[in-house]
Amino acid sequence: MGQPTSKSTKLYLVLALLALQLCFTGFHIVSKFALDMGISMVVYPIYRNILALLILGPVAYLFEKNDRPPLTFRLLVEFVLLALLGVTALQGFYILGLYYGSPTLVAAIQNSVPAITFLMAVAMRLEKLNFVRTDGLAKISGTVVCVGGATIITLYRGPSLKLPFIQPLISNTEADETETVQNWTLGSLYILAQCVSWSAWMVFQAPVVKRYPAPLSLTSFTCFFGLIQLLVIAAFCERELDHWIISSYEEIFTIAYAGIVASGVIIALQIWCIHNGGPVYVAVFQPLQTVLVAIASYLIFGDQIYTGGILGAAFIIAGLYLVLWGKTKELKVEARNTEGSLTTHLLQGNSEDRGTSATAAAATPVTVGSAAVGTDIP
């Protein structure tokens, strides 16, 4: 669905999008807090996915009971691959990036996902490059700017911006300067790997959804197979029984937030927002998350805000908006071309002799999106 039409719907949509970004912000902060408390990087996503599966599974069964197509071996293999990209790799790289970096670093680099997705779609010939039209140039230049911003964040930290009158709620032990620089770069690389996994998951998921049009069930299967993969990893990497024991209310809260809010409330909000406003409108609010995370991370953890991070984030956000503008422009052009083709088809039918026009119309292609679909009947 396109942009919201009524004022009340638009107001609710804006409020829902703000709530969505607040939920994402809370997830970054809560996950960092969980790692600082010593929760295992392997155990944390496992408990998160167990809780998410317990919530999503019954909901998917109730609401999509009549919409699910029968399972095939091909679909099961695709679910396993989706789980590898969208759960195991995505969540694993996220935890590593958060551990070695900061919530602000994560939120800034994640804005490059649309540009990376565009590059993958072009490589797989799912997206066409148009160097002549302004929308094509906008998407290309936006992608280049995003990549440049991610490169700046990874390779250049710069001096920190300090606010001496604000004290963090949680004090972190000062680390050795060399170790901090190394962690900044390593954290950036892990988050870039997470963004690549995220983009690959979205690109690969698109054709799967067409064959299995039950998004909640698809998410549940992805979560299930991802949980199995994480358990296999844990069998080799996390054999200490003490690491599996939840020993405080704080740990319970972090896991509950990750499972219920990040994998439940956020999914519901995203579905509603995309349905009422469209994916581009939802993506426009993404940079707000970066600002909220930077403020919350500074106030809670005392994480420093570096000039390199600000500069890189500015490039990434600018590139994001260029890509989104180009995509919106492209959709409008395609819709106009489709409307023009159909109008021409109707005019031909009204102006010419019925017998002659029927023959001509049968050979006229109708443009749908970027493909020409012939109406010729053999």
TrEMBL record:
Secretion signal: which residues?
Answer: none
Might you report a single GO cellular component term? membrane
Concerning InterPro entries, the annotation shows:
EamA_dom, EmrE-like, WAT1-related
Q: Which UniProt keywords are given for this protein, alphabetically ordered?
A: Membrane, Transmembrane, Transmembrane helix
Q: Which GO terms describe its molecular function?
A: transmembrane transporter activity
Membrane-crossing ranges are 12-30, 42-63, 75-99, 105-124, 136-156, 184-204, 216-236, 252-273, 280-300, 306-326
Membrane topology, as annotated, equals: Multi-pass membrane protein
Is Transmembrane found in the keyword set? yes
- Pfam families, per database record: EamA
Residues in domain EamA? Answer: 14-153, 186-324
Q: Where in the cell is it found?
A: Membrane
- Tell me which family the UniProt entry assigns to this protein: Belongs to the drug/metabolite transporter (DMT) superfamily. Plant drug/metabolite exporter (P-DME) (TC 2.A.7.4) family.
* Name by which UniProt lists this protein: WAT1-related protein
